[in-house]
Specification:
The structure is a homodimer of 334-residue chains. The first copy, chain A, is built from 13 helices and four strands. With 334 residues, the first copy, chain A, is mostly helical. The first copy, chain A, has two domains: 3-30 and 177-306, Cytochrome Bc1 Complex, Chain D, domain 2, CATH 1.10.760; 40-171, Cytochrome c-like domain (Cytochrome Bc1 Complex, Chain D, domain 2), CATH 1.10.760. A two-stranded antiparallel sheet of chain A has the order 1-2. In chain A, strands 3-4 form a two-stranded antiparallel ribbon. In chain A, a hairpin with a 3-residue loop joins strand 1 and strand 2. The interface between A and B is large, with 44 and 44 residues. Bound molecules: heme C (4 copies) and calcium ion (2 copies). One heme C is lined by residues 3, 202, 205-207, 209-211, 222, 224, 226, 252, 254-255, 257, 260, 263, 266-268, 278-279, 282-283, 286-287, 299 of chain A. One heme C binds at residues 3, 202, 205-207, 209-211, 222, 224, 226, 252, 254-255, 257, 260, 263, 266-268, 278-279, 282-283, 286-287, 299 of chain A. Chains A, B: Its main location: periplasm.
Chain lengths: 334, 334
């Protein structure tokens, strides 16, 4: 869907929806289904890898450091802290429901979760390891060798297997059963009147042009600052960095609004901490519309109903290193 | 018990123990009991605080960063990484079974877990916050206010309540049911012959003089390098830093040997990664004894039976910050 189509669809929905319609199929936003896990052992392995700081050179930083599953799958910082406390270039997006994205990263430069997962391991500003070293670490640990053998039929352990396992775990990181989903599925009492009217307004003014689908985003690239330019010191150029086209400057993947109450600060530069301010920015910059306080509060109330069931699993226990394990290098002198 | 008494006790045990004795009561090492949780809600609150990086100024470092419960309650680094990637002064000891210690820290400068827990929050090299700020952060979060109110009868939130809750959680971090404990409780098949003979040797040569009790350590301060000096670049002076007495130089709290296979690298300077080397150092420096390869392997085999049941709970989910929450300061410019 392009923007005009989406805007039209959004408006049609809000004008034409009969009270008795099956909301779950007729609304521009659809409920999230719980993850279907076909290979639980692979998911378990991926979970261990996700929590394992030995995939970083320092031995200190894991995927969970920047996408903390106790905190909505983000670090709740404007930009991330990477190896040696280096400041990251951009806000860390949530991994929750990331499987629903049309592509990964703010500029969509990775096709899917598997393609994405290899990146941070060898990014010198993030985990600062490399694929050879990361695989060598895992190969030195008998429990990992056994797990990879059980999952992939051999003990070789390749980075391809590592990213397959991490992606399989990430695919389970969906957050069903938000109050909004309960309402979508027909429970009229799941939302207050204010929340319902916030949703109506969200559709009416055109937010659903960009924020639609089960993840309420993640399905298209759109210009940040469509009507009015976004002021930021962050040098990120968005999609143009991938396509090289000037027309793609400031085109970012529309972020999911699922769990938006947990994923502050907002926007690719993490400049806004307050959801109410982020909504105000969106209305003005993307839709040329100044919301009054009541309108803003209604939309914020609606957005807060999008917090779904958070990760619900036991803290993974990691198998210990061995004398053969390459040692972490937390400090230059070590 | 002083050293001589302990040595005698150790020797007596190994000479006099009849085969039919109740090992659980007659051995110098006793099994760990599962935690008795009298106030599960307080423990839950403490668990959240333990995992909450908002107790640090950067918003990035939690207790779990340096005492990672996925990794034996340590960071598996020689010395820790603190705020702004500062190098810590000493190896991070495990929090597992720390409740059994006669005092906390390598030099015992904190009387108990509660007295300890306030330290890292305001240590500029660790979490780099301060008690006022940490409490202000918690007070700004309605779910925390409600939890503290339910646990302590008021919403005030004091650092005393914070450390009470963290300590209550830490008290649950015991690791019962190691294979060695099963054997102690009478299951003869729980240990191999090599492991049993390793334990016999451990007692016979006098390791139990210092490593005894349920935690197999933690019950006394002893000189590191009793017979032969320990070579290290680490400036830590041990107990002398607390008492000011020259006689207390290099007196360190004897560490627990529970889960020793998980808590590498070893010694207060984290200089030894290999358990076999650590055992060799101990035998030479503390007992003036050069173990042969077979003896060393037997003791190491025994020590590896001390890995108990690791933390077994769900990843805690943290309540989100609010616009009132003081913002983290990960980088100077922010
Ligand atoms: C040092 C911080 C850091 C670490 C460590 C890190 N990430 Fe990220 N992650 C980020 C940042 C920042 C981005 C956004 C980068 C961009 O879009 O250019 C990102 C993007 C992502 C995305 C894309 C989400 C989206 O909606 O586009 C996924 C998925 C992801 N990371 C998963 C992982 C996994 C898996 C690991 C571990 C193998 C990991 N991350 C390690 C900071 C980190
Ligand atoms: C024309 C497309 C478009 C429209 C219309 C739009 N958005 Fe967005 N939205 C985006 C894009 C693109 C971003 C990411 C911008 C960035 O980070 O630079 C975004 C980001 C957001 C964020 C921050 C998400 C995060 O995790 O950082 C919120 C909240 C949000 N939008 C809400 C809304 C609301 C509410 C409306 C309607 C008032 C709306 N959006 C309308 C495209 C749109
Ligand atoms: C930046 C790393 C770091 C952080 C963060 C940290 N610790 Fe520690 N912890 C250490 C180090 C290093 C020591 C040993 C210091 C010493 O003995 O002088 C230690 C000692 C301890 C001890 C004593 C254990 C023993 O056997 O003596 C306990 C208990 C403990 N920490 C719990 C915590 C709690 C609870 C928090 C969070 C409030 C925390 N730590 C945060 C690194 C850290
Ligand atoms: C005289 C007291 C004493 C005796 C006897 C003793 N130890 Fe220790 N042990 C200590 C002290 C004190 C430390 C901490 C030293 C340090 O870190 O500087 C320690 C540390 C250790 C460690 C490393 C623990 C860690 O987590 O870093 C191991 C392993 C160990 N001892 C095993 C043994 C074995 C095996 C024997 C017998 C061969 C033994 N010890 C005999 C006092 C003793
Ligand atoms: Ca964010
Ligand atoms: Ca250690």
């Amino acid at each position: 869907m392009n923007l005009t189509q989406s805007l039209v669809t959004g408006v049609l929905f809000s004008l034409c929806l009969p009270a008795w319609a099956d909301r779950a199929t007729d609304e521009p936003i659809t409920p999230i289904s719980p993850a279907q896990v076909s290979n639980p052992e692979l998911v378990e392995l991926g979970k261990q890898l996700y929590f394992d700081p030995r995939l970083s050179r320092s031995g200190f930083i894991s995927c969970n450091s920047c996408h903390n599953l106790s905190m909505g799958g983000t670090d709740n910082l404007p930009t991330s802290i990477g190896d040696h406390w280096q400041q990251g270039p951009i806000n860390s997006p949530t991994v929750l429901n990331a499987s629903m994205n049309l592509a990964q990263f703010w500029d969509g430069r990775a096709a899917d979760l598997k393609a994405q997962a290899g990146g941070p391991i060898e990014n010198p500003k993030e985990m600062a390891s490399n694929h050879t070293l990361a695989v060598e670490v895992l190969r030195s640990i008998p429990e990992y060798r056994a797990s990879f053998k059980a999952r992939f039929g051999n003990e070789a352990i390749t980075i391809d297997q590592v990213t397959t396992a991490i992606a399989a775990f990430e695919e389970t990181l969906v957050t069903p059963n938000a109050r909004f989903d309960q309402w979508l599925k027909g429970d009229d009492d799941a939302l207050t009147e204010q929340e319902q009217s916030g949703y109506a307004l969200f559709k009416e003014i055109g937010c659903t042009a960009c924020h639609y689908g089960p993840a309420i985003g993640g399905k298209s690239f759109q210009k940040m600052g469509l009507i009015e330019a976004y002021q930021t010191n962050n040098p990120a150029q968005g999609r143009a960095g991938v396509t090289g086209k000037d027309a793609d400057r400031f085109m970012f993947k529309v972020p999911t609004l699922r769990n938006i109450a947990l994923t502050y600060p907002y926007f690719h530069d993490g400049a806004y901490w307050n959801l109410s301010e982020a909504v105000d920015v969106m209305a003005r910059l993307q839709l040329g519309r100044q919301l009054n306080d009541d309108e803003n509060a209604r939309i914020v109330a609606f957005l807060k109903t999008l917090t779904g069931q958070q990760p619900d699993f036991k803290l993974p226990i990691l198998p210990p290193s061995t004398p053969e394990t390459p040692r972490p290098e937390p400090f230059p002198e070590n």
